[in-house]
Amino acid sequence: MTGNLVEARDLHVRFVTRDATVRAVNGVSFDLAPRETLCILGESGSGKSVTLRALMRLNPAKRTVVEGRLRVGGHDLVAAKERTLSDIRGSVVSMIFQEPMTALDPVFTIGRQIRETILRHEAVGRAEADRRALELLELVQIPSARRRLDAYPHEMSGGLRQRAMIAIALSCRPKLLLADEPTTALDATVQIQILLLLKQLQAELGMGMIFVTHDLGVAGEIADRVAVMYAGRFVEEGPVGALMRAPLHPYTRGLLGATVHDQPRGQRLTTIPGAPPNLEHLPRGCAFAPRCALAEAACLPAVPTLRGPEPGHRARCIRVQECGLERAA
Amino acid sequence: MMFYVIRRILYAVPIALSVGLVCFMLVHIAPGDPVNAIVPPDAPQAVVEQVRRAYGLDKPLPVQFALWLGHVLQGDLGRSLATGRPVWEELRGAVANTLRLAVVASVLGFLIGAVLGGLSGVFRGRLIDRAATTVAVAGVSVPHYWLGMVLVITFSVTFNVLPAMGAGPDNAAGWGWDWAHIRHLILPSVTLAVIPAGIITRAIRGTVSEILGQEFIGTLRGKGLRGRTVAYHVVINAAPQVLAVMGLQLGYLMGGSILVETVFSWPGTGFLLNSAIFQRDIPVLQGTILVLAIFFVLVNLMVDLMQTVLDPRISRA
Lengths: 329, 317
Known about the structure:
Order of helices and strands of chain A: EEEHEEHEHHHHHEHEHEEHHEEH
Strand order of the largest sheet of chain A: 6-7-8-3-9-10-12-11
CATH architecture of the largest domain in chain A: 3-Layer(aba) Sandwich
Oligomer: heterodimer
Strand content of chain A: 15-25%
Structural class of chain B: mainly alpha
Distance between the termini of chain B: 11 Å
Number of strands of chain A: 12
CATH class of the largest domain in chain A: Alpha Beta
Number of helices of chain A: 12
Strand content of chain B: under 5%
Radius of gyration of chain B: 24 Å
Structural class of chain A: alpha/beta
CATH superfamily of the largest domain in chain A: P-loop containing nucleotide triphosphate hydrolases
Number of domains of chain B: 2
Shape of chain B: globular
Helix content of chain A: 25-40%
Distance between the termini of chain A: 43 Å
Number of strands of chain B: 0
CATH architecture of the largest domain in chain B: Orthogonal Bundle
C-alpha cells in the first residue's frame, strides 16, 4: 500500500434513469497525500460536486453507477457494501456542505447532531460524547460554546452554523475532509474567517482536504494543488502557484481571464464563449474544443491525454507545448 | 416556551366563548319562536307568556346569554324537550360512545395511514407507492355510509360473524372492554377509519418525500448514521405537520360520524344529533354541538402544544 490518503484511478460516475444516462464524471485520476489540500475548480455542472460525493459514495445509490478504482484511507469504496460505507462515512471521511441552513437538521440541537455522530462511530457514553461536543464547538471557535450546544440551527448566524457544520464533520477526527463550496453561501467577511479556520484545523488535525469551489480566490487561499474540472474530467492539474501563474489549458486561462486579480485597472475581463456541453451527449475528443479559440482538427478524434512541461503540472490539451512556448515568449 | 404555552391556552378561551355564543344563538337563528317548539300550537296566550318567562326568553338577548353561560359553566345544559331529562344526562353516554368509536377509528386509521404513507413516501414513484396511493384515494373517495352498508351485508348478513348495529348486547346500557362489546365496535370503527387512513397516507407521503429530498438527509448519511437513525430524524421532522392533520381528523371523527352512527345505530353524538334535529329538541342540539365544538378546540390546542414541543421554530419564531 502506498502512503496516499486517496487514490482515484479512471473514476467514472454515471446517473442512469429510464430516459437518459448522464455522464457526470468521466475518468478522473488523482492521488491525495495525507495533510494535502486539493482544490477542484470548475463551473456548475462540471462534475466537481459529484466527484466529491463519490469520495464517500453519497450520490443516490439506486441511480448512480460508479466505476474505476477508488481507495480512501485504505478502503476500497467502489466494492464496499452500504454497511461498510456507513462505517467509513463520518469517521474516515466527512463532508461540509455549501448551505449550512439546509444541511443541518432544523429540529435537533447542534449538540445533539454532534453527539449522535460520535455515538455512531465510537464506543463512548452519552456524557463523554457531550463533553466532546463541547470541545468541538470550542475547537471551531464558536463563542459561548456551552450555550450553543442547546441551540437550534435557526438560532445561529450563517457563519456560526457553518462552524457547527464543521464541528459535526470533525467530530470523529476524519482523515479526509471534503468541503463542497463551504463558503459560497456566506458573507465575504465570514468567508475568509471560515477558510482560515479550515486551514488551521487541517494543520492541527493533520487531515487531507478536498475542496470544491468555483472561486479562484478561495482556491488560491487554501489549496496546495488545484485540479480544474470540465465536463467530468480533470483538464488541468498542478501546484496552485504554477497553475495560477502559468495555466496550460485554454479553459483554465479562460477562467483566470474572467476573474478579477491583478490586471491593470480599466482592462476588460475576458469571457469564455458558449456553454458547457450536455453531459448526456458528450462531444467526441476534447470536450472544450467547441468553445476553444485554439481548437483545430486534431482536437476532435480522441480525448487528449494529460501532458505537461513538468511532472506535477499537466493539462489535457494537445497544444500544451505551444502554450508553454507562448508563455516563454 | 412556558409563556407561549400559557398564551396559546388563553387563545382558546375567546374561541370557546364564540363557540358558546353560536350555540346559544341556535335557538334564535332557528326559524320560528322557540316557545312554539315547547308549547302546543293551540295553547292560550297566557300559557305561552308563562312558558316564555319560565324559560327566561322574555329577557334581553345579552342577559339570556349571560344566564345560559353561567348555567353551562356549572355543567347545566338545560333539559331535553323530548324526554325532560337533563341534557347532560343524555349527552354523557353518547359522548362516551362516540369518543370510544372515534378514538378506536383514529388509532386504526392513523396506523394504516402511517404505514402506507411512510412506505409510499420512502419509495416514491415505485410500485408500492402507486399501490398505497390508489388505496388512499379509494379510502378518501368511498362514501362511508355505503361502505358501512356493504360491510354489514358482508359480515353480518352473509357470514353472520359480526353484529350489524348497536353498541353492545344490551345496547346503550354500559360499556365494557370485553369481546361482547368490542365485536360491536369493529364494523363502525373500520368504516370510520377509512377516510382518515387515506388522508393521513397522503399527508405522510407528501411530508416524508419532501423531507427525504432535503439536504440535511445527505448530511445525516454523510455522518454514517444508519437507516433507523435517519428514519428517526425524518419522523421528528414530519411529526408537526402530520399531527396537525391527525388532530383535525380526530375532531372530524368526533362530530362527523352522524351517517356512520346512523347506519350502525351507534348510540353516540351523531345519532343523538340526528334524533334531536328531527324532534326539534333544541337544548340537546345546543349541548351536543357545544360539547363537540369544545372538544375540537381542545384537540387543536393539544396539537398546537405538541407541535411546539416537537418543533422549536414554532414557539420562538
